[in-house]
Amino acid sequence: MKVRQSVPVVLTVAGSDSGGGAGIQADLKTFRAHGVFGTSAITCVTAQNPQRITVVQPIRASVVAAQMDCVFEAFPVAAAKTGILYDAAIIEVVADGFRRRKLHNLVVDPVMVATSGASLLKKDAITALRRRLFPLAAVVTPNYDEATMLYGREIRTLADLREAAEALSGRFGVPFLVKGGHLPIGNRVVDILHDGRVTHEFSVPVMRGIRAHGAGCTFSAAISANLALGYDLPTAVRHAKYFITRAFRSAVRVGNYRVLRV
Fold first, then answer.
1. Structural domain includes residue 187
2. DSSP string, 76-121
3. Cβ distance 21 to 241 under 8 Å?
4. Whether the predicted model's global pTM rises above the 0.90 cut
5. Please, what are the averages of pLDDT over each run of 10 residues along the chain (262 residues)?
6. How many CA atoms lie within 13 A of 82 on its CB side?
7. CATH of residue 219
8. Could you list the residue range(s) of the whole structural domain that residue 37 is in?
């Protein structure tokens, strides 16, 4: 039997979603769809479904660090992404783990508040996220609400979106992809990537009537998978945008919800 050539390894450091649509579950599905080998370090266990989150139970920081250590010990991790990190202690060990390994292809999804409104990041952890993790990122991928919080100004127009991406990239010294899913421009949704030098725009038609639960996790996971496959950042984002758009278009009904098909 011929042994297949080794595939790229991608690590997700994020929370578990009992509803299966976001978090670790969405990430691993996305990795598989891209033909990369997915590994994980779980930061939180949540009780949630597409409509609400009722419990968030963080994992001890030392256990998160141990999960990362075991993955890096066994596998040549080509890229990684972060999701829910919850508190400063977890952020510190995660940042230290990536810094020691000098991992370049790190996608930081700064998950702060769930679509349902539940807080997923303690207030005292925001400083740790900015100071410790952002500088290690190949790209940071805030959604509209997260970008507004980080930017400190209201974002109302496409020009505001562009300015926010450029300002955040300049402030933190790394590329920022500001997602405009909650700010439709006419009949289109526009995401803005500023890579430190050039601004790139990714635009798709608005798709209504589909639950967006897990879209941010899936998008950032797809970016990390494409980076692991060797694409440069703008190309990785473009491929990931195509992937998430297709997932929306082929959404399926599961129980009472239409969910992304990854």
1. yes
2. -EEEEEE---BSHHHHHHHHHHHHHHT---EEE----B-TTS-B-B
3. no
4. yes
5. 74 95 95 98 94 92 98 98 96 98 96 66 88 97 92 91 96 96 76 96 80 87 98 98 90 79 80
6. 33
7. 3.40.1190.20
8. 9-259
